[in-house]
Amino acid sequence: MWFVDSCRKCRASAPGGTRDICTAQERICGSAEAVPPVRNVSHVTNESGHDTELGTTAVSLREVTKSYPGKGGTGVRAVDGLTLDLACGRTVALLGPNGAGKSTAIGLMLGLIPPDSGRVAVFGETPERAVRSGRIGAMPQTGRLIPGVTVRELVTFVHRTYTGKGRPVPPAGELMETAMIADLAGRRADRLSGGQAQRVRFAIAVAGAPDLIVLDEPTTGLDIEARRELWAAIRAYAGRGSTVLFSTHYLEEADAEADRIVVVDRGKVIADGTGEDIKRRVPGRTVSVDFTGSFTDLDALPHVVSSEVRGTRAHLHTTDSDATVMALAQAGLLRNLEVKGAGLEEAFLTLTGSSKATTTTPTGATR
Ligand SMILES: Nc1ncnc2c1ncn2[C@@H]1O[C@H](COP(=O)(O)OP(=O)(O)OP(=O)(O)O)[C@@H](O)[C@H]1O
């Protein structure tokens, strides 16, 4: 059995550990699942009264692999030897192009998908046990709200399934306030806008006051205002000491909302750190010029990783801005030149090595 620094339950302490007693540690130690020890724990008490420890592991994946059968015997390796630890109390973004393995990784963490090999632990337990004990709440990518009931009826019903089960949960009214849906209480759940429905789904996901909430592309398809409102609700929840893991295609969203960004591609982690860390890893720059010609011509310029045209401005993401600028000059395209350091988007495109990767800006334009 693995144990944290010290624990009343297993009566063991890791080298250098203290004898402080912590109920959260007790829960973690109660499992036979292995999670690596984490040091320098500081405590946060969340709204539900549970101790959450910044620095203690909420989710641990060890060499996890998952393949799906494909046509003609060729399988797809969706998750490929993934090793990842998510610390309690943090907000983490899982970023990656289409088909990178984000949803599969989330399915593994939620116990919805069994791994082919490797080990998945959530708060030191199997995902299934963590889900059963109410420690994880999830908002999947798809799923309609039950028709024919009001928002209040739906949220109250889900809330009731969690009350009296040992975990303290906030009153249903407070839950609706947190999810910013109090004003929708009397509305039919199946007749809401996309953004309103997502906030109701968020309320359902947090109804059991989980310590970890997993959100699979929570803002996809929402307009700017709806995204802003959903994030206000998620942020309020995270602020109570809960761990948040979300997958997204919105790079700016990951940069703005996450303490840590984990970039996955072809089922592997290819970058991991803060938005600043990830930007620093990429020496690329953005070269912008006035442009009214063909978009595809720009991709062929030397060292251009990706390009886009917004209005009459072309923005070229390049790994060698000098060479790109020279080529633009030779092509007679050097008008109103501007050269800037790489943003997260350029970093992402360079790291995933593909200008064809589907990334989306918060304005909704997909490339
Ligand atoms: N049930 C399945 N059967 C077969 N292949 C699957 C299945 N689910 C996912 N895949 C494949 O596994 C790979 C990873 O898919 P996954 O949905 O995990 O990626 P993703 O990063 O979440 O993608 P997206 O951003 O498009 O949602 C893809 O190649 C996908 O086609």
TrEMBL record:
Domain (ABC transporter) spans: 59-291
Q: Where in the cell is it found?
A: Cell membrane
Gene Ontology cellular-component terms for this entry are:
plasma membrane
- SUPFAM superfamilies registered for this protein in UniProt: P-loop containing nucleoside triphosphate hydrolases
Query: What domain of life is recorded for the organism?
Result: Bacteria
What the entry lists under Gene3D superfamilies is as follows:
P-loop containing nucleotide triphosphate hydrolases
**Membrane topology, as annotated:** Peripheral membrane protein
Among InterPro entries, the record links this protein to: AAA+_ATPase (IPR003593), ABC_transporter-like_ATP-bd (IPR003439), ABC_transporter-like_CS (IPR017871), ABC_transporter_ATP-binding (IPR050763), P-loop_NTPase (IPR027417)
Q: Which GO terms describe its molecular function?
A: ATP binding; ATP hydrolysis activity
Q: Which UniProt keywords apply?
A: Antibiotic resistance, ATP-binding, Nucleotide-binding, Transport
Please give the biological process terms from Gene Ontology that the record holds.
Answer: response to antibiotic
PANTHER family membership: ABC TRANSPORTER ATP-BINDING PROTEIN (PTHR42711:SF17)
Tell me what this protein is called: ABC transporter ATP-binding protein
Organism taxonomic ancestry: Bacteria, Bacillati, Actinomycetota, Actinomycetes, Streptosporangiales
